[in-house]
Queue: 3 jobs
Job 1
Amino acid sequence: MTRQQVAGAADDGRKYRPGGVTGMQPFSLLAELGRCFAADSDRYFLWVPVFLAIGVACYFALSVEPPFWLAMFLPVVAGGLLWGVRLRPLAALCSAALFSAALGFAAAIVRADRVAAPVLEKPTSGTLVAEVISAERTEKGALSAVLAPISFAGLADSERPEKVRLNIRIRDAALRPGATVELRARLMPPPEPVLPRGFDFARQAWFEGLGAVGFAYTAPEERAPPSGAAAALTTLRMKIGERIRGVVGGTSGAVAAALINGERASIPDEVSEDLRAAGIYHVLSISGLHMVLFAGSLFWTVRAALALIPGLALRYPIKKWAAFIAILGATFYLTISGAAIATQRAWIMITLMFVAILLDRPALSMRNVALAAIVILLWRPESLVGASFQMSFAAVVALIAFYETEFARRWTMDAGRGGISSLPRTVLVYVLGIALTSIVAGAATGAIAGFHFNRVALYGLAGNMAAMPIVGFVVMPMALLALLLMPFGLDGPALWAMGKGVEAMLEIAHEVAGWGGADRLIPEASLSALLLVVFGALWLCLWRERWRFAGLVPIVLGFAMWNDVSRPDVLVDRDAALFAVRDGGGELALTASRPSYTAAQWLRHDADARQPGEAARSEHMNCDPGGCVYREPGRPVIAFPVSLGAVADDCSRADIMIAKIPVPYRVRRDCGAALFLDYFFFWRNGATTLHFDGDDIRIVTARQVRGDRPWVQRTRKDQ
């Protein structure tokens, strides 16, 4: 029997023995798993970024900051173990996974240490002298600026933040990037989460180097003009945005500018809401889609132009020349777009694709995506905990896995065959391609979007099918043409065409957003449920053999556990300025509608579509100048006093006392309430939730969940 016959027999499930084939081999699950494991040996590398991510996730899951020496110790130990078992295949794979996780853990430690910078300890007002890093004009005409303080309110260098974000709501205020300015401002520490397990802006600010946020009392006065290459580049970016907004005009101009320079502050909130509801808000985030359309258009244009010159096309690798120019174009797009994290990630991925062309390798493959993920996780490990990283890689991995299937390969390869006669089929394939791409990408990112944003765009397929051809064939090609012609002052027609495309896209978004139930809110989900869904999806996409379908099991289990979350019965915000109680019907009753951001976030986490003002009107919540009292039959009486007199009045009748003010120990001791929390408790612990478990009350605080990490502000009690 030949080697080919033996291989064929193995594929058919037959057992080969010397002397011939002896019938069908009984099915064995273990043997099938072993066969799949061996057959997918070329996919092992794809799991390296997964285990890197596990290491990064372990770092962020800790309640205390690990010592820096672990960044060296763990990879060395794991690497030594890998070297010791390198000749034993299964042990080597397990050791490689352990080494990858150790490397991810170490990368997060190093990154957190490298970005360490002073964080403002308490709200402070004073004169601020700073260098302007960037400035965006908002829809209402205000300025949102990032500044690098040179001096502020007499703070020492060790206490002064390296970067601050400032809102300037003063008419005619102007800032030039790179200039040194002086103004009076009030700065505050980066805000804590509004819920114990809510979005932690302070953590994001730590890794961005932001040590404070605030607002200006006076208009900035320029003390020194801009200087340096970085300032010139930022100024160029701002001028490009002003040119686009001036030529296109209106809301379309603001969106068109955002697609090129990444400035989204001037886009009206209602437009952003329409785009979210229509499932096409991703168009505003300069990421993989924009890089592919921008650099891809440049690649195709350059290659087509060179192909018109026979002497070049027949003698030289014009495809590689076009790829190199496309890399330069993508890099330019990265710089003028503001180089946000999502844009950096997209640049890495598109650059790897064109480098693959230069090296005569497949341009778009799962291996290239894995390489991009490895680079980002080692360079910016904090990206892992952000929705942008998760959603973009989920979409790309799912799409490549889909188009790797035999059905998708045959379908796309046959599309353009047959010349002009195949044009109807090509158009049909393109339309179906948009539909399938939207379905696959939407399915891949839906759970992540629901977890982070508590919303799902039900008609995202319709929105994408209608809008994406306009974006792909009109908006982004015209954006590229406008940038090429802008230095010569000939960009007007291209910007006009781009504006018309954006206008059509916005009309589509508004129409789809108006359909009933377009933007569906979903309640807060369990983290373990999301992890199960993500693991199942990775198993389904990264393997190629039949065992990949086992990934459907954790996906189903994850969705079954999606709402397995304990809903808090009482919520208190980080400053003890707002309270909420869950009534017998499961809805939140607010003591007030402000702080509006906190109230809106609480309602969103609850999938409650009411406005804060509506939620502040409840028959069970009675408020007067002394505070509020919540009374509902069969539930504890909860008092929220705002003065010592109100505390004395409520102590005799309330089961739970939650005071907005500091209360002396003697008063708290003599109070008859079963639970008494005052301002000092929230000052130390931040946002707090109470969970009623029968007769017991479980308290969960933001400080408890966040732990003792560098981005968690130390209160005076800790000093």
Job 2
Amino acid sequence: MFEKILIANRGEIACRVIESARALGVRTVAVYSDADSASKHVALADEAVYIGGSAPAESYLRGDVLIGVAKETGAQAIHPGYGFLSENPDFVEAVEAAGLVFIGPSASAIKAMGLKDAAKALMHEAGVPVVPGYHGKNQDPEHLAGAADGIGYPVLIKAVAGGGGKGMRLVETPSAFMDALESAKGEAKTAFGNEDVLIEKFVTQPRHIEVQVFGDGEKAVHLFERDCSLQRRHQKVIEEAPAPGMTAEMHAAMGDAAVKAAEAIGYKGAGTVEFIVDGSRGLRADGFWFMEMNTRLQVEHPVTEAITGVDLVEWQLRVASGEGLPKRQDELSITGHAFESRLYAEDVPKGFLPATGTLAHLAFPEGARADSGVRTSDTISPFYDPMIAKIITHGPSRAVALKRMARALAETQVAGTVTNLSFLGALCAHEGFAAGDVDTGLIGRDLDSLVQAPLPSDEERALAALVALGLTGAGWPTGFHLWSAMKRQVRLCFKDEAFDVVVESLNEAAHDVSFGDTRVEARCVGGRWRLNGQLAPDAMLKDGKAYVFAQYGLSFDVIDPLERAASVGAGAALIEAPMPGLVKAVFTRAGEPVKAGDRLAILEAMKMEHSLLAARDGIVAEVLCEAGAQVEAGAALIRLEEEDAEAAA
């Protein structure tokens, strides 16, 4: 076993690797950028070394620097985590050339699976079923359109070097093909430096089921499957293991295919073989096809750990240090069911826009596993993926594991940024998902019902007022003034709704809270606050906001009584950056007329492209940015002329 390893990553996965390494007695070296100098993974590691600027290209993607740090600190091996350099064969070769061990597969294995078209050809030769499609080298648009016609619509255009849904477009009619092709190629070139695509038949009721494999360079075993069908824009949201509706025949067929795939490339370490499955007639052994292989540890590996009792990171370290496979196939079995929910800082009602912010509070409930790379007071940075945590639950059956997940989400507390907690909770309550009737289109079909914004109850509004006035803790005045009840007033704002609240304090354990025609009785009984007899949820005040931890988190702005109302803004006349990012392109200029819905610019943020549209008809007054500019959230990018001015003209 190694004495010391370097972790060439950050955040949640770096913390996860440190945990298993420590259990094996292995010392760890963390690396960090400017943005991560006070991060959790830095605090957990035995050593930490600064490697550069906040942008990944200035730090976590500098392979030569990482290798240099490993050698300087005496690390014998490098664990890449996932993302960044984890699937870069050139980095693997450089690590090995430096006399170090790469904790993962060989460069040749990564290369074999790195391009989707070549990987599919290799899998076909190995006897693994592949989706009908065009995987050839001819990238002429007319040739690709002809291939799509031959495959039959609907088809998927996919970047050959892609992943995470980037460079992927669904095309349902021939007339839409050319525009979709141009868009997919542009996004692929930006994300991967390679604009080549392949064309595949689109399965109309698809399920995404993947198989965890582990190899020693010659032989491999599988650790059963995970269902990752619950996706939004091809990004996984909730994963589970085993897949609902799985039969013994299907288990065997998919497991056998995955092992064939791993052994065909001499795979070493943890990997995942992803399959597209036709769910229209139930799970059948002849209804699944190879999509791709992820030659690294997956984000969702904890659900496999939960049902098998295996620590996959421990296995990675043991096999990389020279041990054989820790278990034979017949020694592996499934116990119970597990779910993983991905908790993100993102604004769901605004189209799942990635968010930033400093975590004023972060707490997870007992009874659930929470893998997180952040803590209270940490900042969600615009430079990296906005994941806050992975929440994992396990139970003896799918129904029990799902109920435990629903409760864990409801009891998770986050303050300081918007999150997708409410969306995840709505998914757990979805009738079809609860019944195991899932496919990759579920979220898209029912999106409106899944993203309903919460409305605070009277009791929750009252609690926010009490917190804002500091009346829920100890050590405040008795509440009496000139022998009469003391009254206090506070103005709160929820979303865009401002309201005034009057609190009449009868004594330190009794308040009457009034707003409009509503009155709520707040009483402290046995050390716990009750509102109209109901037990109050947890709440806190931080940086001018009252947080009530109910309905997955409610945030109220406390309005300073000395502040004047802000002047009316430019509204629909001003197009602002919804998040920090890079202005990729600008499609208009001053004096040009535009129509509502016209695409005015593209903002690239969190590795995705976001189109900025005109909110109304008008004439462009100013273009306040240019392509290539890095902008902050809220930055003014394009201004339209005021409507009165347009009318006068």
Job 3
Amino acid sequence: MDFNLHQRSLKVNNLTLAHIAHDAPLTQTLNCIACDIETQNPGIMIAVLLLEAGNCLRLGAAPSLPPDYCRAIDGMTMDSKLQITAEDIEANRFCSRLHHLALQHDLHVCSMTPIRSTANCMSGMFVAYSRKEGTASDECQQAIADFAVMASIAIVRHDAEARIRKAEDTLLHSKATLALAIEGSGTGIWDRNVPTGEISYSSGWKAILGYTDAEIGNRITDSYTRVHPDDLAYVQAAIQDHFDQKTESYAVEHRIRCKDNSYKWISSRGKVVSRDAQGNPLRMLGTTTDITSMHSLSEQLQQSVDLITSLTNEVPGLVYQYQVLPDGQAFFPYASEGIKDIYELTPDQVASTSTPVHQIIHPDDVANYSASLNASASSLLPWHLEYRVVLPRQGLRWRQGEARPRRLPDGSTLWHGFITDITERKRIEIELQGFATIDFLTQLPNRRYFMTRMDEELARTRRVAGARTAVLMCDLDHFKVINDSYGHAIGDLVLKHFAVILRNALRRNDTVGRVGGEEFAVVLFDAGIAEAEIFAQRVRSQLAEIPLIALNQDINVTVSIGIAMMHASDANIDVSLCRSDAALYRAKQAGRNRIEIDLS
């Protein structure tokens, strides 16, 4: 009899293991175990309860118990997280509730046996019932204890499979999220097989040029025919430099021919992501962005808008999702690895809150940053902003954000977009702004900037009682003769020579400007006629003492200077300029190389 029982237990064990190996539903495996215990122990009914998150117990199997009782015990809770790991689960108040509920259905609880994992944590329990009061026999309790091990294996396998499915779902979601972010950014993607000379383009890339998917081939030689002839050598040289590992990445701005034979300016960025043992490039990934509208504003100002469009995160920039809930909470459901360079943060730091990003935005830009996002959320129009951030390692940097919003069913707003570094472009803008105020030849302020400074000085003269400002007009004598005698190149050297003398004679708060061909104007801050005359004499003396040496000879140059005072009663700056210009005219009429003063 014992031998037959052993044989049956072995058969059930094998059947249970087969269920586990073939990924049978957990309930089917547990039902098999419960039925066998009941078969071996007539009069005993088995329930298998599984411990879920917290203290909740769910019905895993109960082949012989009444359905209404099964519904009553499904979802019951243990009373204490500490007690559910104790050996004596009878001490838990849950036991008394279970006993009481069983009696209402003419059942008696005979035993309660925990199901433990390999880490000795409780994952469920076997509960034995009978129609008669009493405890389960030793043989029954031993059978339940034996089968609890098999149940534990089945539960562990089921939980592992659930975690794998969840991980797979998460991966698929991540891929979908990245695809949405790339689509929202409006960029084009390309993937080049260097050894074979093949290149594939995304639909977005082809759409930039007005093509459909079937209208562009995959040969790199064909792609070069679309590059503007004036840009082709530059593009190929930049690619070769990257292939030769002279540059960290490939980044160019050039013109490309569209389907209608017009040309667009594009920013193309990429990087070799694999090389052979000799360092030769094998595969290259990159992005293409239409920058035609940006480039038309100023061809010298624009730099590429960087987008990370690959899971490899080899292309500089940040691809992201940004979500604002109806209650105002904001976070980044997805942020690519580019966030480490753009914000010096990790994706985990912004997954539940956007506060770390707000904390690094330049204080002067915080209000504009928030207002622009709020406006985009209200209107559902694309978000575009240039703003500064202050980073621990990189310091002050410029960022450009682009994103497209959409409203979700729960009322929240979700943006798909990208953020790129435009620090270098901003540096060029500042330089060009300087070029707009500086005379290229003499490197002195030009007429426009000088007049602006005069307006500021007139405003100060009117505002500050007793303020004194002298205005000087300087004109190089016989400059036309110099040009005719020596040529315009020497004439330019004369102008630069005089500009250096003027600049060296100025004090810190004084202003000078080239206001005409050979005419220069000076505003002396907090100076009267006497100080202005001393300044003018010093300029004349230095010009005489330091001649220009060109063509192996000294070229002597003289200057005529007119001096006048700026008055608070002047209607505008032209009044004081006219006075100093009139004094200059008198100096010219009196023989040149002299100083005349207007005393009005």
